[in-house]
């Protein structure tokens, strides 16, 4: 909890800039403060049962027995946050898939660390991202990597050092780890003779109105060997119905 107190203490310092207007994009409207203050939330991660992890390894083994074309088709559609649809090639016995699905539904969402995020106007429809997080071990605070991005609300694009991330609609069903959601995802993909890179940021909210999420991911691979050069990402969760997330015992979604 000391890490959260540190964040709150820093947020209590009077803001140097205080604008009365907000980001215009409907996805951002009302979700994050736009007056150079920040909203507290948590970086979260799924926690699966040992039985599910065992099933996932067995699934991986069966996947490796598929043809290269079938493996590619699977990976092109694979979303690690969403329950895999039934495929007789991967589950010869439907009962095995039903057990897999039942274990998936038991996932728990656990808190990795406390975070705080907000927006600050830079004029001309441009917005800087303010953020803080505290290392649970050292208690030291630092910005999140999304603070390196800026948002252009007039064009609805995010801008990073790699270029512009463009938007598309995002929807998730109740088979998503974090529940049914709607929102937008902004993505940038680049490739040259040495590497291929994908960067994305997603802002979505639960359809039941309980929470909204900010997801960021970055992945760069060698075009020659497909080996990972750099990667990272996180999921941030913020409450919609209350001002603070319960920091107590992790629970199921």
Characterise the protein shown here.
The chain is an alpha+beta fold and 253 residues long. It has four helices and twelve strands; from the N terminus they run αβαααβββββββββββ. Strands 1-2-3-5-6-7-8-9-10-11 form a ten-stranded antiparallel barrel. Strand 5 (150-152) and strand 6 (157-160) form a beta hairpin. The longest helix has 14 residues, at 50-63. The protein is globular and about 60 Å long. The relative contact order is 0.16. Mean pLDDT is 83; it is low at 1-22 and 242-253.
Rg for CA atoms: 20 Å
Secondary-structure-derived class? alpha+beta
Q: How would you describe the shape? A: globular
Count of DSSP H/I helices? 4
Series of H and E elements: HEHHHEEEEEEEEEEE
Lateral strand order in the biggest sheet: 1-2-3-5-6-7-8-9-10-11
- Tell me the total number of β-strands: 12
Low-confidence runs of at least 5 consecutive residues? 1-22, 242-253
Q: Could you give the distance between the termini?
A: 22 Å
> What does the average pLDDT come to?
83
Strand content: 35-45%
Q: Which sheet architecture does the biggest sheet show?
A: 10 strands, antiparallel, barrel
């Amino acid at each position: 909890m000391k890490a959260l107190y540190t964040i709150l203490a820093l947020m209590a310092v009077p803001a140097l800039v205080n604008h009365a207007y907000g980001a215009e994009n409907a996805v951002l409207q009302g979700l994050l403060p736009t007056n150079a203050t920040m909203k507290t939330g948590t970086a979260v991660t799924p926690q699966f049962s040992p039985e599910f992890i065992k099933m996932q390894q067995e699934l991986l083994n069966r996947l490796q027995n598929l043809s290269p074309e079938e493996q590619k088709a699977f990976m092109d559609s694979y979303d690690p946050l969403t329950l895999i649809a039934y495929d007789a090639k991967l589950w010869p016995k439907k009962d095995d898939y039903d057990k897999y699905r039942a274990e998936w539904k038991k996932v728990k969402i656990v808190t990795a660390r406390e975070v705080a995020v907000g927006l600050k106007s830079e004029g001309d429809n441009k917005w800087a991202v303010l953020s803080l997080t505290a290392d649970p071990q050292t208690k030291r605070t630092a910005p999140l990597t999304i603070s390196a991005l800026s948002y252009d609300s007039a064009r609805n694009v995010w801008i990073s050092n790699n270029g512009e991330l463009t938007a598309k609609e995002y929807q998730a069903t109740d088979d998503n780890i974090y529940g049914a959601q709607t929102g937008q995802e902004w993505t940038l993909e680049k490739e040259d003779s040495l590497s291929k890179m994908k960067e994305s940021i997603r802002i979505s909210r639960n359809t039941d109105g309980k929470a909204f999420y900010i997801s960021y991911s970055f992945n760069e691979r060698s075009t020659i060997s497909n080996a990972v050069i750099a990667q990272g990402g996180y999921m941030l969760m913020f409450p919609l119905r209350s001002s603070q997330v319960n920091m107590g015992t992790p629970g199921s979604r």
